[in-house]
Design a protein that fits this description.
The chain is mostly helical and 263 residues long. It folds into two domains: 76 residues, no CATH class; 173 residues. Helix content is 72%, strand content 0%. The chain is built from 14 helices and no strands. The longest helix is centred in the middle third of the chain and has 28 residues. It is globular and about 55 Å long.
Amino acid sequence: MVPYDAWSLQTWLTGLPKMALCHILTTVAMKSPRVMQMIEDHQPSANLLKNNINKQHPMSPTPSATTMTMTASTLAEQQQRFPPAGDFYQEILRIQERARSIVHSLDGCRPSEQFANEAALAEELQRVVRWCTNTLHASTRGHSLAALMGLLAIAREGLSAIPEIRKYLFGKAHLGRMVVLEMSSVLKNFKNTTHLPDQWSLLLSILEAPHAVVQDHHRHQVAWVVQLLRDVCAQMAHCDRSWRHLQEYEHVVAIAERNCWPF
């Protein structure tokens, strides 16, 4: 059996064709009504579908397979076109919490234990970076600024590591290089498929923006994110002076300044 973790599994599910995902949802929901209840609780639009189903089949306690397929298909289409309010916020928050848990998992260990496990820690954190871009940018509902903010959250968590772990992450495991190249990629291939300003104040709170910034004009808020990017990139560059392409840390800021303003 191929080993996997929750992040790898979710990445695989995200890349499935819509009809394949609908088939999985339908099959599982038919076997376990609790799954349908979970979908309804997570996606408010499912309640509207359920009400319509009950109107059409008032005496039927359980939706038919055809109805379930239609429901799953409609939910998948709506999820791709119109992500629910707070969707990016919840995803970035999960990414940040996962990164924080990994980064500080060895804080209380002896130096020898930290040394023995630092490579595994770095690998886990790199998986979170890949998950971030796959979910927030590569998907059909991807958004470049949301992906950038997710990557910023990961980078800040890495920089908050204890000195020994931080030195390994950015000096030997080259986490900063990976993050900055992912940032460049999501900004060059700019996506703006969702009305992100509806969630903007929530996203800013993840990056600990001052209250004055949260209440400010949207253009000034984007400028604050770009300045945060500049500061974080400068810190990562300081930890990675041996990289022959060190200018990439400055280059990504220039790309952000150029491409974020149309948004």
